[in-house]
Amino acid sequence: MLFPPFGWSQFLTAPLDSGPPRASRIRVRRFAGPAAYAGAMEPIRIAHLTDQHVGRVTPWAIQHEAVALTNAERPDLVVITGDFVCHSQLYLDQLIELVREFRAPVIGVLGNHDHWAGADEVAAALRRGGVEVLRNDSTIITVRRQRLQVVGLDDAYTGHAQVDKAVAGLRRDLPTLALSHIAEEADRLWLYGIPLVLAGHTHGGQITVARLHEIAVGKIGGHKYVHGLYGTRQPHRGAVVTGAVYVGAGIGASVMPFRIGERGKREITIFEFGRRPGEFEEPDQEQAPLPGRAPSLRKMRRRAEKVIRRRTRRSLRRTVELDRV
Ligand SMILES: [Fe+2]
Questions:
Q1: Between the N and C ends of the chain, which has fewer C-beta atoms within 10 Å?
Q2: CATH of the domain at 96
Q3: What are the average pLDDT values for consecutive 10-residue runs of the chain, which has 325 residues?
Q4: Which is nearest to 31 in space by CA: 239, 268, 236, 194?
Q5: How far is the CA of 112 from the centre of ligand 1 (A)?
Q6: Domain for residue 303, yes or no?
Q7: Domain total for the chain?
Q8: How many A from CA of 50 to the centre of ligand 1?
Q9: Distance between CA 31 and CA 44 in Å, rounded?
Q10: Residue 14 within a domain
């Protein structure tokens, strides 16, 4: 979330509760994959989750419910687009436990909260939990006897995304999907022929009544892509390079637990690769982007400094703790 309001600190100290057993706190949305792959492959099902933010703010029952709902869809692959944690490394054991519950291969990329909490440590925990973590890298997995290429960008919000590095050695002959915490990176990934990018970070704005999410995340936050599907899944026409990007509303939150309004609901999104857009009813149409505003160099420097500051603080704390032993 980009605009954490003040006064929510009570939620940071609330217990990681188990919550009441309800069935409808998370919705499942379903879309076809890129048109280019329709009929060219046996359909495969990819489940997308984002912004789990394992920690005190999001009830533990919701985390388990998200995994159970995902497993019930019987996906061939699960992809997660960052912000696995909230503010610290306190819940890495729970994160490992959670990702181990997925009943399909899991590929993930990191988000800004993961970098603030310690990117190397979060990535190591995810790998212990069986997740393949892509940090400006790509991988090829075999799903239903077909190869699928997945490109994973490191977090662009904190300045860690390197598209050139992520796409180095990319195979043009394989169906490809890209993951990025920040959706705006799709603009550059499309140039490499990647037709669909999955992203997170915005939480769909969380409060979406009266289009507040478009004001807060779009106008104030400067995002072109706020929630849902943007661009086109149709093949490129002429010299115009296009593609699609999907911004998931996410599962958890790091500061403000509320989600008000249809577009801000917690969600799991299913992409049916190999099926044509229009073949079945989808929850939304492809949308045109908002104007957006790229972050200034000053802002990017401040974001990078925050990561370094937190890393330094962690290492000082560790040194003090070692001195005490
Ligand atoms: Fe987030």
A1: C
A2: 3.60.21.10
A3: 38 42 77 93 96 94 96 98 95 97 98 97 98 98 95 97 96 96 96 96 75 66 89 76 92 80 87 96 91 90 94 87 72
A4: 268
A5: 8
A6: no
A7: 1
A8: 8
A9: 12
A10: no
> What span, in angstroms and rounded, lies between the C-alpha atoms of 227 and 245?
10
Ligand 1 centroid distance, CA of 259 (Å)? 13
What's the CA gap between 55 and 86, in Å, rounded? 6
Work out the end-to-end distance of the chain between its first and last CA atoms, rounded to an integer number of angstroms.
Answer: 38
List the domain range (segments joined by +) for residue 246: 20-294
19-53 confidence digits (pLDDT tens):
444 545 899 999 999 999 998 899 999 999 999 99
> Which two three-digit tokens encode residue 4?
């954490």
How far apart (Å, rounded) are the C-alpha atoms in residues 67 and 162? 30
What is the Å distance from ligand 1's center to 239 Cα?
Answer: 35
pLDDT of res. 218: 63
Residue in the structure block whose two tokens are 């492959």: 41
For residues 122 and 84, is the Cβ–Cβ distance under 8 A? Answer: yes
For residue 304, tell me if it sits in a domain.
Answer: no
**Residues written for the chain:** 325
Cβ atoms of 100 and 129 closer than 8 Å = yes
Q: What's the CA gap between 131 and 38, in Å, rounded?
A: 28
pLDDT digits (tens, 9 = 90+) for 105-156: 999 999 999 999 999 999 999 999 999 999 999 999 999 999 999 999 999 9
Q: What is the CA(207)–ligand 1 centre distance, in A?
A: 14
For 320, phi and psi rounded to 5 degrees?
-60, -45
